[in-house]
Amino acid sequence: MTFEVHAQGAVHVFDCFACAIHRMAPLCEHCRVQIIGQGVEVEGHWYCGGHCARAEGRVGIVDRV
Length: 65
Known about the structure:
Distance between the termini: 37 Å
Structural class: alpha+beta
Strand order of the largest sheet: 1-2
Protein name: Prokaryotic metallothionein
Helix content: 10-25%
Number of strands: 4
Radius of gyration: 14 Å
Organism: Streptomyces similanensis
Largest sheet: 2 strands, antiparallel
Order of helices and strands: EEHEEH
């Protein structure tokens, strides 16, 4: 059984969620980890959390626990 993910005008076909996550999850622009679940976006840039965003010079980012 397969499923489709429609994103940014493209259709991706997968047979498991792990493959979909590996292909579709954004990467943190500081530490390069795949962002699965929560991350932060600042002005079009993705980070895994506030720490990495601040390390890249972004201000005003607060992690919520």
